Structures are given as C-alpha cells and as structure tokens.
Amino acid sequence: MASLSDDDRIRAIAILEDLRQKIAAAAESDRDRLFQIRRYILKRLEFDERGTPTQRRRLKEQKRRSQRGLCAMCGGSLPERGAELDRFRAIDGYTAGNTQLLCRNCHQTAEAERGSI
Questions:
Q1: 14 HSE (CA, 13 A, CB side)
Q2: What backbone phi and psi angles, to 5 degrees, belong to 101?
Q3: 3-state secondary structure at position 70
Q4: Alpha-carbon span 77 to 111, nearest angstrom
Q5: How far apart are CA 28 and CA 37, in angstroms?
Q6: Which of 21, 34, 61, 84 could form a disulfide with 107 if both were Cys (CB 3.0 to 4.6 A apart)?
Q7: What is the dihedral of CA 87, 89, 95, 98, to 10 degrees?
Q8: How many CB atoms lie within 10 A of CB 67?
Q9: Cβ(70)–Cβ(77) below 8 Å
C-alpha cells in the first residue's frame, strides 16, 4: 500500500488541526469532556475502518460455520474463543470475501508473512 503523498499529508494535517480546534471548543476547557469527545471520535473512526464489534462478531460466526469450525490455514479445529479474523487486504475491510477465520498461531504467521507485524 502506498503511503500518503506530501500534498495528501498536508491536507490530512490541516483536517486534524481543524478537528482538534473544534474538539477543544466543544469541550469548553473541561478536561473530562475533552477526553470523552476524543475517545468518541477515535472509536467512530475505528468503526469506519473495521466495522463495529457486533459486525465483526457476526462475521466470525458466519466464517466459523462456512469453514466448518476449522482454521482456514492449518485445517485444525478453531478454538471456541480466540479465533481471529484475517483480512487478505486491510483496505478492503472485514467482509465475507476478504476474510478467513484462523487460529491465533496461523494468524500471527499470516501477519508476519505479509509484514503486518
């Protein structure tokens, strides 16, 4: 995946600075409110990229059924808890066509092979 160009980085920094000013104004010098607004925005941006925890949990259940409870890499039984969704291409998100359900060891191996770790 290509990194941001210098022009794109400048645009992103301007957006970030504008957002910081708006957050500070909304917080009205209240540190607790500032913290909560930042956290709220952070989580919503994360959901934009990864989907909500409920969406990912449903996808994991769907994948577990379609893979018949087996790890997509090693073919071993997936653990009841702790199986991990692996995205083939991070930019394409957590979708049925872009993910596989793996045991923890295989997920770590897949991430290392992609250079994601």
A1: 6
A2: -100, 125
A3: strand
A4: 20
A5: 11
A6: 84
A7: -80
A8: 16
A9: yes
Kindly report the CATH class assigned to 53-114.
alpha beta
pLDDT of residue 2: 72
Query: In this structure, what token pair is assigned to residue 3?
Result: 């990194």
Nearest to 69 by CA among 77, 80, 61: 77
> For the residues of 80-107, what is the DSSP string, one character each?
SS--EEEESSGGG-S-GGGEEEE-HHHH
For the cut 80, the answer to whether the pLDDT of residue 117 exceeds it is no
State the residue for tokens 């872009």: 98
Sorted by where each begins, the domain ranges of the chain are 6-50, 53-114
Question: Distance between CA 71 and CA 105 in Å, rounded?
Answer: 10
pLDDT per position as a tens digit, 48-73? 999 999 999 999 999 999 999 999 99
